[in-house]
Amino acid sequence: LPLDGLQSAGSGPLYLKLRQSLEDAILSGKLGHGDALPAERDLADYANVSRVTVRKAVDDLVRDGLLTRRHGSGTFVVKPLSRVEQPLTKLTSFTEDMARRGLVSRSEWLERGLFHPSPEEMMMLGLAPGTMVARIGRLRFGNDMPLAIERASISAEFLPDPTLLTGSLYAELEKKDARPVRAIQRISATNMKKTDAGLLEVPIEAAGLSIERVSYLASGRVVELTRSLYRGDAYDFVAELSLGE
Ligand code: 16G
Question: Which atom of ligand 1 is nearest to 211's Cα?
Fold first, then answer.
C-alpha cells in the first residue's frame, strides 16, 4: 500500500489524507473486494501515523460503505453488488428465489420458538384463545452476502416445533399442506437502525426496504405474517404492469 509520505503530502487533516490513500487503493484494485484491511496497528506503522488517525480514516470509509467491520474478524473491503431482481407477483420462498439465480442460500437464526401470541398476531393469524404462535427470525444470505432480516409468525398448528426447522419454511409448510397460495405484500422505504445495519453489514441509516407479507391458504386462512428488512442496495422488486380498464 502506498501510504508513506502522508505527513508531507498536501495540506489538510492527516486522517483525511489517509482516507484518500485507502480509497484510492480500493478504487484502483490494489485492495481487492473482500480483502481484509491490515490491522490498525500495522496500518499506523506503515503510514507513520497514530492509531487514532487510522481509526478515524477507517470509520469514515465504513460510514461511506467502502469498508465493513465484521465482529471478531476485522475490517474488509466491501464487495461490489450485483443486485438481486425479484419479480413482485410470484409467491415464492427465499430459498427458491436464490436457487433460481444460482445463489447458495443460507440463514442464521435470530429467534426460533413457540410463544404466547401478541394481540396483533392473534388478530392477524386468527388464533383461538390459548393457542401458541411459532416465531422464526432469520438473517438470510445469498452467496454469503447478508440480504435480508426476516421475522415470521406462524400459527403453531402449522409449525408445532419451530426448533426442528432447518431449511425452507415454505417447504416445511408444503409437507403439512399449508403452503400459502396467495399473499398481500406491502413494501415501504426505511433507514436502517444500528442493530439491523450491523447484521446486514451496511452503514447505519443505509436505505432499506421494509416488507410485510400476509399469506393465505386457499381456504382464506392466514398462514404467515412476516416482516422483512431487505438491503436497499442489493434488492430490486420488479413488477410487470398492464393497462387497467
Ligand atoms: C420470502 C418471503 C417470506 C417467506 C420466506 C420463506 C418476501 C418479502 N418474504 O422471503 O415471507 O416466509 O420467503 O422462505 O419475499 P423459505 O421457504 O426459504 O424459508
Answer: 8
Backbone angles phi, psi at 107, to 5 degrees: -130, 150
Residue-wise pLDDT for 206-215, tens only, equals 999 999 999 9
Residue from 53, 45, 42, 2 nearest 23 by CA: 2
Distance CA 35, CA 31 (A): 6
Q: pLDDT tens-digit profile of 106-145?
A: 999 999 999 999 999 999 999 999 999 999 999 999 988 8
Q: Which three-class secondary structure string do you get for 196-219?
A: HHHHHCCCCCCEEEEEEEEEECCC
What is the helix (H) or strand (E) element at residue 98, kind and residue range? helix 94-100
Record the cell numbers describing residue 114, joined without a space: 413457540
Our answer on whether the CB atom of 213 is closer than 6 Å to any ligand 1 atom is yes
Task: Give the distance (Å) from ligand 1 centre to CA of residue 227.
Answer: 10
pLDDT score of 102 more than 80: no
Strands 84-87 and 235-238 come out as parallel
